[in-house]
Predict the structure.
Amino acid sequence: MTGTGWRGLRWRVVGLVMLATAVNYLDRACLGVVAPTLKGEFGIDEAQLSYVITAFQLAYMITMPLAGRVGDWLGTRATFLLAVVWWSAANVLHGFATGWRSLAFFRALLGIGEAGNFPTAGKVVAEWFPPEERTLATGIFNLGAGFGAMLAPPLVTVVLLTWSWQAAF
């Protein structure tokens, strides 16, 4: 492949990482949109909702360095595949929640899976980009965080109002 061919490929790769990051943030932002509905349906109070949110944050925080280690062992492709499959399954499980405890458990599972995104994305940038382009590539994949967070409220609201809170997850 020519130099320009590889150059184009690596920008497509960082574009895919940006899309994964967008989905990552879309998934995590879903709770904020459906929380009022869940609070009413499950009788969740503010303290219980804080436990649900903390479950995600704690699992995410603890698992992030472990996810980085897994990325070093398995490589970027396998780690991204594992992370995306894990967090997608965990997100689907939210639809089976029956109260704040099960919701907190599923949020913790989501945090474990989503922890793989940023360490692996950083490794993708390190593997595919020369030092002089790594900051730009990092900025591009990080666009996904803002895009996913921005897309979540209108998209999740439409799904919530059209179908259900379960479908939103």
